[in-house]
Amino acid sequence: MDISKIKEQFKSLYGADGAVYTSPGRINLIGEHTDYNGGFVLPGAIDKALYCVIRPNGTAKVRAYAPDENPQTVAIKSEFGLEESDKPKERWAQYIFGVCREMTKKGAKIPGFDIIISGDVPLGAGMSSSAALESCVGFALNDSFQLGFDRFQIALIGQATEHNYVGVKCGIMDQFASCFGKEGSLIRLDCRSLEYEYFPFDPKGYRLVLINTCVAHMLGGEYNERRESCERVVATIAQQHPEVKLLRDADTDMLKEVAGKVSAVDYIRAEFVIEEIQRLLDTCELLKKGDYEAAGRKMYETHTGLSLKYTVSCPELDFLNEFAKQSGVTGSRLMGGGFGGCTINLVKDERYDDFIQKATDAYHQKFGIRAKVYDAVIKDGARKI
Ligand code: GLA
Question: Which of 210, 335, 339, 360 can bridge 374 by disulfide, Cβ–Cβ 3.0-4.6 Å?
């Protein structure tokens, strides 16, 4: 990513230098759709990131510029005030606005500012470009205007932005990973207590690689619907077990007790989540022992659960997953919310070149799409440059 270019763009647009901040996208090794259920996740920040240049402009308005957007389809400049009624039309600008509003609700005084946003996190690929944007803007505002929030609060402000200004009732994983990422480590995060532990990850003899299907089938609503399924099951279990506040607090016996009381769809979704929380814990034990082959099998189990029980896969992701399995790849699964985006693959060094070549060729032959490939390089979280 060429940072000097956006610094120059900023200067020529706004006539002065600004401060530069960055915040990354993320991978997640295992533990999908567990975060909003209070379970565990195992993400890491990556070397694909969002960048911003920012400085106060002495007015009460924000002037924002997003040179990466396509000017044919969306305005790349947006100007808006900071009152609740000032929400901009451009979706990319709504993230900036939302972060400002959430900070203001917490008592921050945010002056007008000029900002440029740019980056190399692929959009819609399940690598959390939106969380990277929220965390980047949150971190930049906090540091530039001495607002006094800590990283936890910045992550929560990003999540609240998704809930209140984007309409996605997401969990905390993406924003947390973007704010707390550490080079060379995954983060084992307990999404109920928000306790976390850095988990050094250097699988000798293996590579972690993302294959982007380059499709995004999410129509909106599917994510929130799954969250609602989980909440309905929790409410039903809590009638007999009031201590259960989240699916994390439930076990399969409790779930079986409500079999006739919840819909079959809700039941099977909840079953996936309860299994996935345990699967993550088991995988962490395997990783500690260096048993990557067994950890890889857990990744395949996650994919099967996401595809058949949680139903967030799609033909493109299933194809890549099956291709990996047939090619003897150690572990593979869809990553992130689903309905498109990437598979994450744990591949033995010696199989890597052959697998990538054959998988992308076969994918092209089947779907007519050139998949994109990214090595997962685990890097630090939000910071000033
Ligand atoms: C999206 C959400 C996260 C998480 C994942 C699925 O990335 O933003 O909070 O729920 O989906 O694990």
Answer: 210
